[in-house]
Write a structure and sequence with these properties.
alpha/beta; 3 domains; flat; 16-stranded mixed sheet
């Protein structure tokens, strides 16, 4: 019986798709991590369809063949998926800035690099918003007391051939500045023909302007403006001294936010988030990075995966959704709600109620002013100086409570319960199984 390999057609289509993606990315920046994962998933589906079709054809044919998977096809799919996973992971582990210039195969052949300095100035007295769109490079925004935006740009042009005149012409033409209604926009032309361009900006902006940044592959620093919205990839973001709201979306970089006059909203992955002195509600979503929040005049809502959460000096309510990382908080003016898996929880000095649900890790609570509800599995629950009623459900681990001012209701299995200094008036309400 003859052998027939399954996956040759899938391999061909996958390579064509990869080539199209890499070519297309020379013209428009693509999130390669997500794109490669989609390509790998689609290729697996195509491989399954190819196997079904060949099996059906084999059953209909008189000349039977033995179907075998193509090892080269499987190897290619593994490499594509591994590439999409290793890249962001490497950034986190090394804790270094890594710049991906569009993943262009052709950029590697830009052997001749030229650098130029350019400056531009625009009056924005009647405008309300300033926008920067950049593909590759760092952006720094600083405040000015004038009514003018001053753009200082360092432009790096890469060519295959040695031609400084051509490079300078490209540098002169690449930055576009235009007014759109009440908006001033700075953007860059994306060149073809194996030309790579990166632009580092230092821009002075009047403090009364709302500032929006859309950047790929670079760091962003902003201070001293009215409001901020940032969409960035593959770089760190630092925002401070902002009068109004701040909204951030980032990938593969750390975020530092300090002294914000209104609410804060952050979405990030593969990087740490630090937010200090926020005069408004704060909402943070993160993956694969620590989250640290301090000094918030308002509520905070944090969702995190695979790293730690720490918060302190919060005047409002706290809501935490966490997996696989430590949760630690103190000095909270209102209530705290924690929902987590495989994460230890430590809370101290909370004025309101607390509600904790976790699994397989310890819970430690101290100086709680309101009611306490804790649900845990296979982790200790230790509480001290609890101001109102306490309800604890636990399995297979110790519950230790001391100095409880209200009623105590404890349910556990197969382990020790220890109660000290709870009010005698509530002794009859203590339930232990």
């Amino acid at each position: 019986m003859k052998d027939r390999k399954v996956g040759i057609m899938t391999l061909a289509l996958t390579l064509i798709g990869l080539g199209v993606i890499l070519t297309y990315n020379n013209f428009i920046a693509i999130d390669m991590t997500k794109t490669l994962r989609i390509l790998a998933a689609v290729s697996i589906i195509v491989l399954g369809v190819e196997f079904i079709v060949m099996e059906w054809s084999n059953r209909k044919s008189e000349d039977k063949v033995r179907l075998k998977m193509s090892g080269l096809c499987i190897f290619t799919l593994i490499i594509i998926y591994a590439a999409s996973s290793i890249i962001p992971l490497g950034i986190v582990i090394n804790n270094e800035k890594i710049t991906f210039h569009g993943w262009s195969l052709f950029n590697n052949f830009n052997q001749h690099q030229y650098t130029f300095e350019r400056s531009y100035e625009e009056d924005v007295e009647d405008l309300t918003k300033f926008v920067v769109r950049n593909n590759y490079g760092d952006i720094e925004i600083v405040p000015t007391e004038t009514t003018k935006v001053t753009v200082n740009a360092t432009i790096q042009v890469g060519l295959n051939e040695e031609d400084e005149t051509k490079a300078e012409t490209i540098a002169d033409e690449t930055i576009n500045i235009k007014s759109l209604g009440d908006i001033l926009e700075v953007s860059a032309t994306r060149y073809q023909n194996n030309t790579s361009i990166s632009i580092d900006y230092t821009i002075s902006v009047p403090s009364y302007l709302i500032t929006a940044i859309n950047n790929g592959n670079g760091d962003v620093q902003i201070k001293g403006v009215k409001e901020v919205a940032v969409d960035n990839r593959y770089g760190d973001v630092v925002i401070r001294d902002i009068a109004g709201k701040v909204s951030l979306e980032n990938q593969n970089g750390h975020i530092t936010v300090n002294n914000i006059g209104d609410s804060l909203a952050v979405q990030n992955s593969y990087g740490n988030i630090t937010a200090v002195t926020i005069d408004g509600d704060t909402k943070i979503e993160n993956k694969n990075g620590d989250v640290e929040v301090e000094g918030v005049s308002g509520d905070i809502d944090i969702e995190n995966r695979y790293d730690d959460i720490r918060f302190s000096q919060i005047t409002g309510n706290v809501v935490i959704d966490q997996q696989n990382g430590e949760v630690k908080g103190d000095q909270v003016g209102k209530s705290v709600e924690v929902s987590t898996k495989y994460s230890s929880v430590s809370l101290e000095d909370v004025k309101g109620d607390i509600d904790i649900e976790t699994q397989n890790e310890d819970v430690t609570i101290t100086d709680i002013g309101g009611n306490v509800v804790v649900t845990n599995q296979s982790g200790k629950v230790i509480g001290k100086n609890l101001g109102k009623d306490v309800s604890v459900k636990n399995k297979y681990a110790m519950v230790k409570l001391e100095d409880v001012k209200g009623k105590v209701d404890v349910e556990t299995q197969n382990d020790l319960i220890e109660l000290k200094k709870y009010r005698i008036g509530y002794k009859s309400d203590t339930k232990i199984w």
